[in-house]
Amino acid sequence: VDIEKVTDRLYRGFCREEAITQTIRKEFIAKEQSIYSVVNRYSDWLSTGDKKEIDRFLRDFFEILNNDRSFEKFVVKACRSY
To answer: Would the pLDDT of 1 be above 80?
Structure first.
């Protein structure tokens, strides 16, 4: 898979036990609003275009996490073996 832009996603983490992977997934999902609040805290320093790009990038990330099929495809099956 080719990466053309820094915002292209390619999971390169190592494969872990499913329980660990799911626990980490749930931690990110639980912190979604906190992550958005950090971005909002600094939004005055960002251009409108940068804000939109950050929002899109985060939204896409959380869409993958919240969708079982996407999570399986883009994270679980994309992991690297040791």
So the answer is: no
